[in-house]
């Protein structure tokens, strides 16, 4: 009998002995087979099988690994290692072995075995709470074409669970790092540490690397697949929302790298918020309500024109304006928010309207356009000065201070709060806590309102300096008003600025009203007819017809006085 034949005969004898439970005879036969053919792959596989049956786990592993060294592309030794590592509770070894079996069966095209071992590999790391590998194996199982719908659905759910665990672990690490950084620079209170930890954890949700993006793609796929479910799971269903919220917060932050587009982040968050509200209703309102004003602030709704309505040079309305405004309205109805209440009040009246210093009444009527009711104003001031994070983020606070300042330009200043204070605070927040380059309209609006607040308090020189750094019809009107109230009045400069503004912004009636009025009261007598003509065109006056109801009262009054003077 040849050497190979004798080895195979010994292996057969060892196998038969194992079948009848005679492990000692099996061990003797396998040992003889090893002596006769130490370079035979099958001999080492059988030797490992016999040693495992004898309870020698380490010896079995050594024998199987010897066989693997001879034929790394054959599954028999790996299947033996799989059993040995499983019996020993060696999770890393078992995982490595299963991965190798998956590779071998993938190469041979045995998809049924691939699915079987993928499922087993996933279960192993899932039970061990190795979430990174649990995620990768579940994702691979989900992507396997031969897996059935039930298997893929199971894999998607497991991938989602693993993704959430990875997300939370990363957030905890980032939160602790933020606390450690704080402790390294100061003696912080527990409240400060909690705030730093929360900030760090939130920032981690918005990290933009490939792995994180893949995690959230999986979460989004799970959410879509779970679309018929009416059972709300805050941790899973709010995961995408939390990430989009973190991305918007990162885009707005003064530490932003500029890689994230604020408007895009806000629109994505708006879509997700409305999708969740449509699906789960008020169950998600406590999560959505705190960010509604942040979305409005990021989209800079109502800040894209000089003065809305009759005073606008252009009135371009973003398609998201109504959607975002309705979200704020719905959230405010669910849980009252003083900033939202004031913003909506001004929004419904087209914000503050025109600020015309020369015709500003010292005590405006309670129903004056853009004037907040006293109770709304007082609630807004209380919310803004409470240092309570629940009222909104930094962008929401800036919007609230700006709304308060704009209302106080019309009237309603308190002894302890003036328009200049409110607008200055808005500027500090935008410049000190937010990325002002990402909010250009807000930054400009704050500067305009602050300059007008200076003018309202009589600081014309400081206001003039501020207006000269700004562009647009509203700033040019402010410059002209400051020149008009200089000591002595510089009417020539005021008229020149207004004439330039009227030429540059022909669709802004307010500029032409100011020009016509100043030309009437301070221009040469021979230009009174021209002044009247400018006023009439600005007000849309037509012979024998009443003025439009949309024409502001102050413009109508000026036109009436001009007609009387020219008569």
Automatic annotation (TrEMBL):
- This protein's source sits in the domain of life called Eukaryota
UniProt protein name: Uncharacterized protein
Residues spanning the membrane: none
Native source species: Ostreococcus mediterraneus
The TPR repeats extend over 41-74
- Keywords assigned by UniProt? TPR repeat
SUPFAM superfamilies named among the record's database cross-references: TPR-like
The record's listing under PANTHER family reads:
PTHR15704:SF8, SUPERKILLER 3 PROTEIN-RELATED (PTHR15704)
Q: Which GO terms describe its biological process?
A: RNA catabolic process
Q: Which GO terms describe its cellular component?
A: Ski complex
């Amino acid at each position: 009998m040849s050497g190979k034949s004798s080895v195979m005969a010994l292996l057969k004898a060892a196998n038969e002995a194992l079948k009848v439970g005679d492990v000692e005879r099996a061990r003797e036969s396998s040992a003889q087979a090893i002596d006769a053919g130490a370079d035979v792959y099958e001999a080492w596989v059988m030797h490992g099988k016999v040693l495992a049956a004898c309870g020698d786990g380490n010896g079995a592993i050594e024998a199987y690994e010897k066989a693997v060294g001879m034929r790394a592309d054959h599954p028999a030794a790996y299947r033996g290692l799989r059993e040995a590592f499983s019996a020993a509770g060696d999770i890393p070894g078992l995982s490595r072995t299963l991965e190798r079996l998956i590779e071998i069966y993938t190469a041979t095209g045995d998809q049924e075995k691939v699915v079987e071992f993928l499922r087993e590999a996933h279960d192993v790391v899932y039970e061990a709470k190795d979430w990174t590998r649990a995620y990768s194996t579940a994702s691979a199982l989900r992507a396997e074409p031969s897996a059935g719908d039930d298997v893929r659905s199971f894999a998607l759910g497991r991938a989602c669970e693993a993704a959430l665990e990875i997300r939370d672990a990363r957030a905890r690490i980032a939160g602790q790092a933020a606390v450690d950084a704080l402790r390294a620079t100061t003696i912080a209170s527990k409240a400060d540490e909690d705030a730093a930890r929360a900030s760090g954890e939130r920032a981690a949700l918005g990290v933009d690397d490939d792995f994180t993006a893949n995690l959230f793609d999986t979460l989004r796929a799970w959410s879509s697949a779970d679309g018929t479910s009416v059972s709300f799971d805050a941790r899973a269903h709010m995961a995408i929302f939390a990430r989009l919220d973190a991305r918007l917060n990162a885009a707005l932050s003064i530490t932003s790298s500029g890689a994230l587009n604020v408007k895009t982040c806000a629109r994505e968050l708006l879509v997700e918020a409305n999708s969740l509200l449509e699906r789960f209703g008020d169950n998600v309102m406590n999560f959505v309500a705190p960010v509604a004003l942040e979305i409005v602030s990021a989209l800079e709704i109502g800040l894209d024109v000089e003065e809305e309505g009759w005073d606008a040079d252009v009135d371009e309305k973003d398609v998201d304006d109504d959607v975002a405004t309705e979200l704020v309205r719905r959230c405010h109805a669910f849980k009252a928010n003083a900033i939202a209440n004031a913003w909506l009040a001004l929004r419904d009246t087209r914000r503050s309207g025109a600020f015309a210093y020369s015709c500003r009444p010292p005590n405006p009527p309670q129903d004056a356009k853009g004037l907040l009711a006293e109770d709304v104003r007082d609630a807004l001031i209380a919310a803004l000065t409470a240092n309570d994070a629940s009222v909104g983020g930094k962008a929401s606070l800036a919007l609230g201070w700006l709304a308060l300042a704009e209302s106080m330009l019309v009237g309603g200043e308190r002894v302890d709060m003036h328009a200049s204070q409110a607008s200055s605070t808005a500027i500090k927040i935008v410049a000190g806590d937010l990325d002002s380059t990402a909010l250009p309209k807000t930054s400009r609006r704050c500067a305009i309102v602050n300059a007008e607040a200076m003018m309202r308090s009589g600081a014309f020189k400081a206001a003039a300096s501020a207006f000269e750094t700004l562009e647009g019809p509203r700033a040019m009107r402010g410059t002209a008003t400051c020149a008009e109230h200089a000591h002595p009045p510089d009417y020539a400069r005021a008229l020149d600025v207004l004439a330039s503004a009227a030429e540059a912004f022909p669709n802004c009636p307010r500029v032409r009203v100011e020009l016509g009025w100043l030309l009437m009261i301070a221009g040469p007598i021979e230009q009174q007819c021209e002044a009247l003509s400018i006023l009439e065109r600005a007000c849309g006056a037509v012979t024998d017809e009443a003025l439009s109801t949309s024409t502001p009262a102050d413009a109508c009054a000026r036109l009436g006085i001009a007609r009387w003077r020219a008569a």
